[in-house]
Design goal:
By secondary structure, the chain is α/β, with parallel strands linked by helices. The chain is 33% helix and 22% strand. Strands 9-13-12-14-15-11-16-17 form an 8-stranded mixed beta sheet, with helices on both faces. Strands 1-7-4-5-6-3-2 form a 7-stranded antiparallel beta sheet, with no helix packed on it. The mean pLDDT is 91.
């Protein structure tokens, strides 16, 4: 029989403290009844002797030290899962908000999942086609990879996220099941509506599961949202054999919620006021991506974060870069020139790209084209710097060709329409067309056989 505790000892922001507790456990779900009517849920985040510190998901408004009755459920937070979650929309803690009723299932899964055991991991192979040239061609997304997008305030990361959901696939020849789990944390209502409307109008919502935590929702709910989403992704991948792409935006909102709760707990802050366990907490999310040996399915992650003041050395992008396998960086200067998506090629990379492209995956020339485009675009930066000093007219003929290549590369290869879905072969063909602007002697990263087969001077 469960025990009901009358009253609270302390209320501090989104946290309450209960004394005289017996048998409480870390991460246990707690039920509150306020004034005998309103019901709320909480989670024990600290347990010391007979004291329990509890996060209240719906916030502590209306709660007082005397009007609250608390009951320990004896279970961690669980969500009901089945294949019926595809095409559905849930709030930040997994409750349906699309008016279609609850998920009926005997499978109830603890949301506090664990990172994949390194001994059971299978090395990621094969790519996920996004239809975006700057990603597919130069920073290819591999199944089971975690590849974050580093953005900034005002940059079109929401539009890019929506395009990724609409266009991502396993390729035209694949018959394997593919789906997207989309988790939004701390987004404004109009942004959430943009995602919902875009997915419905494009006809992809039947293979998308959405978890929405809005900006006016309680802060502590934000800390649960990515875990609920990843639990759903793991279920679809490892129980149902599907390949799942998880897109999470915005990780910065998640970290700021963590900082707020940490401050309420009175913990000693670390860099920029974030808790000292920020690294391990982010790792507990990112390391839930991967492929399990002997099991069908995979979980691939694209976390999106906005860098405060466009500072890539800020703790959130800095620590994310340590844990993940590369990054895609959005550039404010390209955005100012009207180029979409404004992906800055040189600081972007995919560390697993080499193992999921080439003959048998994309095309034999993929790696060589990517290497040559990177190398040539790096020389564009040098040519532009020189032109700013001595003037474009004083440049050598080869430097002028690099300037022409750089402009065409940004407009034709990086830039594309919001609804333009390019196959990988088209991306590579565009790459060869641009390399044709340069003399054959400048293409020192490409094998002679490939040059003879694909190179055509402009």
């Amino acid at each position: 029989m469960s025990i009901e505790y009358l009253g609270l000892s302390e209320i501090n922001g989104p946290l309450v403290i209960l004394e005289g507790v017996k048998g409480a456990a870390f991460d246990e779900i707690v039920s509150f009844k306020i004034d005998g009517k309103t019901k709320r849920l909480g989670r024990i985040i600290e347990d010391y002797e007979d004291k329990a510190v509890i996060q209240v998901f719906e916030g502590t408004d209306g709660m007082s030290l005397t009007n609250t009755h608390t009951t320990l459920t004896g279970k961690p937070m669980e969500i009901a899962l089945s294949e019926d979650i595809l095409g559905r929309t849930f709030d930040g803690i997994g409750r349906p908000i699309d008016g279609l009723g609850p998920i009926v299932s005997e499978d109830k899964v603890d949301v506090n999942g664990l990172p994949l055991n390194p001994c059971t991991r299978e090395y990621p192979r094969n790519y996920i086609n996004t239809g975006i040239s700057a990603i597919d061609g130069l920073t290819t997304l591999i199944r089971g990879q975690k590849l974050p997008i580093f953005s900034g305030n005002g940059l079109p990361h929401n539009e890019l996220a929506a395009q990724l959901v609409q266009q991502s696939s396993l390729g035209a020849n694949s018959e394997e099941k593919f789906a997207v789990v989309f988790a939004a944390m701390g987004v404004k209502y109009d942004v959430a509506e943009f995602f919902r409307r875009t997915f419905e109008e494009s006809g992809v919502s039947d293979h998308v599961t959405m978890f929405l935590n809005l900006a006016n929702d309680p802060v502590v709910e934000r800390l649960i949202t990515p875990r609920v989403a990843l639990t759903a992704a793991e279920y679809l991948a490892f129980e149902k054999g599907m390949h799942i792409l998880v897109i999470m935006t915005d990780i910065t909102s998640y970290c700021e919620a963590m900082r707020e709760v940490s401050s309420s707990k009175g913990e000693i802050p670390s860099r920029k006021g974030y808790p000292g366990y920020l690294y391990s907490d982010l790792a507990s999310l990112y390391e839930r991506a991967g492929i399990v040996a002997g099991q069908p399915g995979s979980v691939t992650q694209i976390p999106i974060l906005t860098m405060p003041n466009d500072d890539i050395t800020h703790p959130i992008p800095d620590l994310t870069g340590y844990i993940t396998e590369g990054q895609i960086v959005l550039d404010r200067n390209l955005f100012g020139q009207g180029i979409y998506p404004p992906i800055s090629v040189l600081p972007s990379l995919s560390r697993l790209m080499k193992d999921g492209i080439g003959e048998g995956y994309t095309r034999e020339d993929h790696q060589a084209v990517a290497n040559q485009l990177f190398s040539s675009y790096a020389k564009v930066t040098d040519a532009r710097s020189l032109a700013s000093v001595i003037g474009e007219d004083e440049l050598s003929d080869i430097d002028k060709k690099y300037l022409a290549f750089g402009t065409a590369f940004e407009k034709e290869f990086v830039g594309q329409g919001h609804l333009e879905n390019r196959p990988v072969t088209e991306t590579l063909d565009i790459g060869w067309k641009l390399l044709g602007i340069l003399p054959k002697s400048e293409l020192d990263r490409v094998d002679t056989k490939l040059l003879d087969k694909y190179y055509k001077p402009a």
